[in-house]
């Protein structure tokens, strides 16, 4: 198990029966109790990571804020935990806004995102009185100004800037480059135009800038580079209405044993330390820094357990091992070519002697969870666990092939709590009229 330690929660242990346990709970027993596929989160690790984030950023500046990017995983239990730990909440749609409010999040702590917010979503955000709206297009500024005016409100906003920094990550999750559907480029005066439009709008109150350069980032230098460009821009724009700087999310996590992401503390040092150094260099008062982590809070804390439904040997070609889930609960391998490790919860210490392709149950050849996994011999009925599936796994789940979405369990101190029930077949027809 040792080589996998960086992709498993630190609470990973082996039970006296030789099973893998997380948060003091035997994964084999959890699969028997709750069925498979099953998504398990180490609640202690979730809470610890939230605390480390808040501590690391506030060590630089007590005004700093950590905003959880709810798109990464949005169960009510998790949102309530984030609130209890003093985080703010990033929502990117009316639906995410609803879920945050439903979890009891005070609207003032909610930050509303989206490159294509419609009038209904903006109205919902205004009616709820969300703290900040991050504006993403000139059309949106005009619409927001009108909708806020109709309500007799003045809405605080950040302008989302694309600084022209392209971190090395998958093209689908890089967002800081100029050719992007997100934000306003620094180049060509687009960001300057957005700042001017906000300043001119009577019902829009500009309070700062936002920038999210991408996701699953290991190279922290990209943040320093973005901070430098933003400082130059803030200095050019003048004014005392750019007091907040939201640097977005993006810190990467280890998906496979070779991955060595920076720590939350290293990330905080680079992001807030870098922003302060760059703001000092242009002689502006230091902004109130916010960050919006998603993946790095929930990714490593979550694991998915599948049951093997069958194996198939194609002589001279390869061995296939099929499980009872796949692209309906974990789209990342198919969408981004993401790689994962696999471990057998029933025999975590057994010697890995077989190379195989781990596939899902969907009617698509591309429904491959791991192209080449090396595992101990496995047979129908065995359990297979994929670590580090806590971010953008169930959050991106679908009902493809009428497959019901998995249950979610939080484990901590030897207790397992069902926080999201498994979908039932009846849920599959519940919306049909
Ligand atoms: N803030 C903004 C404005 C974002 O767009 C995102 C992610 C975040 C914060 C959080 O980023 P994180 O800390 O999680 O990297 N489905 C993809 C990731 C898409 C990220 C979208 N935006 C994946 O599974 O890799």
Name the CATH superfamily classification of the largest domain.
Alanine racemase
CATH architecture of the largest domain: Alpha-Beta Barrel
How many strand elements?
20
Low-pLDDT residue intervals, each spanning 5 or more residues: none
Termini separation: 50 Å
What do we call the CATH topology of the largest domain? TIM Barrel
Our Rg estimate from Cα atoms comes to 23 Å
Q: What does this entry look like structurally?
A:
The chain folds into 2 domains: 2-35 and 301-428, Lyase, Ornithine Decarboxylase, Chain A, domain 1 (Beta Barrel), CATH 2.40.37.10; 43-297, Alanine racemase (TIM Barrel, Alpha-Beta Barrel). The chain has 12 helices and 20 strands. Helix 2 runs parallel beside helix 9 (264-282), helix 5 packs across helix 6 and helix 8 runs parallel beside helix 9 (264-282). The strands form 3 sheets. Strands 4, 14, 15, 16, 17, 18, 19 and 20 form an 8-stranded mixed β-sheet that branches. Strands 5-6-7-8-9-11-12-13 form an 8-stranded parallel beta barrel, surrounded by 5 helices. The protein has a 3-stranded antiparallel β-sheet with strand order 1-2-3. A hairpin with a 2-residue loop joins strand 2 and strand 3 (25-26). It has helices at residues 27-34, 43-60, 76-84, 94-102, 119-128, 138-150, 190-200, 221-237, 264-282, 295-298, 332-336, 425-429; strands at residues 13-14, 20-22, 25-26, 38-42, 65-69, 88-91, 110-112, 132-135, 155-162, 184-185, 204-210, 244-246, 288-291, 302-314, 318-323, 354-359, 368-375, 383-387, 407-412, 415-420. It is α/β, with parallel strands linked by helices. 50% of the residues are buried. Helices cover 30% and strands 24% of the residues. Ligand LLP is lined by residues 69, 72, 90, 113, 173, 212, 215-216, 248-251, 292-296, 332, 336, 391-392.
């Amino acid at each position: 198990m040792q080589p996998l330690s960086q992709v498993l929660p630190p609470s990973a242990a082996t039970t006296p029966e030789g099973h893998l346990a997380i948060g003091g709970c035997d994964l084999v027993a959890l699969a028997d109790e709750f069925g498979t596929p099953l998504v398990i989160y180490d609640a202690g690790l979730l809470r610890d990571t939230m605390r480390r984030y808040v501590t690391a950023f506030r060590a630089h500046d007590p005004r700093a804020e950590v905003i959880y990017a709810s798109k990464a995983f949005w169960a009510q239990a998790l949102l309530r935990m984030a609130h209890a730990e003093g985080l703010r909440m990033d929502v990117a749609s009316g639906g995410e806004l609803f879920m945050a409010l439903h979890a009891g999040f005070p609207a003032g702590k909610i930050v509303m995102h989206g490159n294509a917010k419609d009038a209904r979503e903006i109205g919902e955000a205004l009616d709820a009185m969300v703290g900040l709206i991050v504006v993403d297009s000139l059309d949106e500024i005009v619409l927001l100004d009108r909708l806020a005016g109709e309500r007799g409100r003045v809405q605080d906003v950040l302008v989302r800037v694309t600084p022209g920094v392209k971190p090395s990550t998958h093209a689908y999750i890089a967002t800081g480059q100029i050719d992007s559907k997100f934000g306003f480029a620094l180049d060509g005066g687009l960001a300057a135009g957005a700042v001017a439009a906000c300043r001119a709008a009577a019902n829009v109150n500009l309070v700062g800038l936002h920038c999210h350069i991408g996701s699953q980032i290991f190279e922290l230098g990209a943040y320093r580079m973005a901070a430098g460009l933003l400082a130059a821009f803030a200095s050019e724009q003048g004014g005392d209405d750019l007091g907040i700087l939201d640097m977005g999310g993006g810190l990467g996590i280890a998906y496979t044993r070779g991955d060595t992401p920076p720590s939350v503390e290293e990330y905080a040092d680079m992001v807030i330390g870098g922003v302060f150094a760059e703001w000092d260099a242009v002689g502006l008062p230091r902004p109130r820094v916010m960050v919006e982590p998603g993946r790095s809070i929930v990714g490593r804390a979550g694991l998915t357990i599948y049951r093997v439904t069958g194996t198939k040997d194609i002589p001279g070609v390869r061995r296939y091992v099929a499980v009872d889930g796949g692209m309906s609960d974990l789209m990342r391998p198919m969408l981004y070519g993401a790689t994962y490790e696999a471990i057998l919860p029933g025999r975590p210490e057994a010697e890995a002697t077989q190379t195989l392709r781990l596939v899902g149950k969907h009617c698509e050849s591309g429904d491959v969870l791991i192209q080449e996994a090396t595992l101990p011999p496995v047979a129908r009925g065995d359990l297979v666990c994929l670590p580090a599936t806590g971010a953008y796994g169930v959050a991106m789940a679908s009902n493809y092939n009428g497959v019901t979405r998995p249950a979610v369990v939080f484990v901590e101190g030897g207790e397992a709590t069902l926080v999201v029930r498994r979908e039932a077949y009846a849920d599959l027809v519940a919306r049909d009229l």
